[in-house]
Amino acid sequence: MMGIYNIKRWMVKMNLSINMGEELSSLPEDWVVLIESPSELANEFSLESIDYLVDKQDYVGIVLTASKPYLTLKKQFEAKGINVDNIVFIDCISKSQSSEVEQAGNVIYIDAVYNLTNISLAFKKVIERVEGKKFLYIDSLSAMLIHNTPEIFVRFIHGLITSMRLASISGLLLSLTQQTDNSIKTEVANLCDKTIMISGPQN
Amino acid sequence: MEHTSSSNKNSTTSPDQYIKTGISGFDKLLRNGIPKGSNLLISGGPGSGKTIFCLQTLAYHASQGRNCLFISFEESEKRLIEHMDEFGLNPSQLMNSGHLKINRYLTSDVYYDENSKDDTVQAMMAKESNQYTMDLEPFVIGEEGFKPDIIVIDSLTAIASAFIGGNQKYRLYLDKLFRFFETLGSTNFLISEAMVHDNESQGNRAEDFLADGVIFFYNSRKHNIRESAVEILKMRGASHDKKIVALNITDNGIVVYPNQEAFSRYD
Questions:
Q1: Contact at CB, B248 and A159, closer than 8 angstroms
Q2: What is the CATH number of the domain that holds B154?
Q3: pLDDT tens readout for residues B86-114
């Protein structure tokens, strides 16, 4: 099943959350969706999606970040009015840049983006401890692929999605258009229930 | 998919015939446990968790009232006790209970070098009888008649270093060691250094063939970090998972994740 969107930039701002709601409500429970987005729309789309799921659908968000540090994301989410108390962050980049990281109850730091084993363990730890319906947001597959070989990365995603299915957890996996190898996108798309493609204003 | 292996289909499943390590994640890799009386090779590179694994296992059994003995040819008793303390394994309490003993020896205590100038009576007797290896019983049983249920030797690598140029003698020594353990009925953990990428050593050494079980600890480097993992390479008489799983060395000792694949390359 594949939904293809041609969303102008202004439409993203105005209507994306509504479109997301429509798309996600048409999926079976515990959906896993691959999103392909141009880099210039990715940040906005992330905020809209997380806002919709956390604040309007009462999900607990698990945000696995490989592109922005926890503190940056936290500020962006708060500026957007997203309740960060309902989000657990798995930050894969801050610790690789600094030995001093701000400790908080809702963040787990991973020493490097390529430590896929510890990322998996952190995710399992979060889903064991956090109650309620949950979704995982990965931002982004493209950033994770900078640091991991495609073969191992696909194995990791396969294991992660299997864990999500077993624990009834939904997922949004963001992949940047033109920055992720097509064969990997195809492999990951096969594991997901749906692919949402977002194209920029030029399209 | 779980991959399991059993090298002895006729083995019974009586719980009395198996032991656990007390490391719950690791024990889940074995259907029933480790067959009692086995000689297990605990193999891996430096810093991979071999010694901690053994110390935890000993602490678990000593706390259950079984006699446990750690024979060290490397670290001092004091350092090993400190290790146990760091991981909250209560060594003083276990030693005071009489169930845990830690003894350190020199490799020259177990092997007589015919070219040495050693003029001790024991060395002269060994030379006279051409036996080369010293009697093992004093090391294990001791004067107090302490009969261990679980023995750790740290390490076979250190012992082997005393046999440089004498591989045949080392193999004979190992054979003698294993036979001696059989008479005791103890379950024995024999630590051995081995590098994961050293195909010549992994699985092809004399001790790999002689041992009933081989447990391999990995400490793989990926860019600037290291990742730990563990694998049961073989375990005679016991079904076990055949996969490499994640391991972390925490403040409380080793934690094994039986359902977590390790993503670093281990081939």
A1: no
A2: 3.40.50.300
A3: 999 999 999 999 999 999 988 777 665 55
